[in-house]
Amino acid sequence: VKVKIPFGNKYLDAIFSVPKKKLSYGVILTHGAGGDMNFPHLVSLATYLASRGILCLRFTCKGLNIAYRTKAYKTVVEYLKLSEDYKLAGVFLAGRSMGSRAAVSVARQLTQDDDDDFIQGLVCLSYPLHRPKLQSKLRDEDLLFIRCPVLFVSGSADEMCEKQLLEGVASKMKAPKQIHWIDKANHGMAVKGRTEDDVMEEINTQVFSWLRENIEQEHK
To answer: How many domains are contained in the chain?
Structure first.
């Protein structure tokens, strides 16, 4: 279902992947610095999750300014929260690369308020912890302040997220966290000798089982 979400004096293009049998939880997905919501990995994940009962809303927001991207993401969260068509008990924020930075930033802002438990967790695909070859400047500040559960899915050969550095940051985080490493994958999740579909299957099943675990936890 295509929608246009009001954002300032313009609109954000977005698409709902709606499950036949509805769970009361959803996932918001957005892309990295390049591309848009039709990036193949996002389409694959949204389709996979919707076929298993989890509503997915993916959206496009162009621009390389992280504050702007965060503002847009926050607008989408509020839109879904107030949606009459899809009444959800909670939502997981997800993004790829720069999109995951925006998701983390929104989670930090919105979960400071203890009364708001709409945001259930975060899924960070290829989180860009640092620029290539610039490991001395880590983008870890927001990660250290968030409190909701986080799943990182990263390539062990990601030039923007050195394995040891992410594990070091994760060890300092207060939030419950899990890291799933895609062996030998780069920042774009490409692995020599494996097809894109094969890698996506690994990512999709991992994300779904983590979401299901957290949703079940919520119901205990």
So the answer is: 1
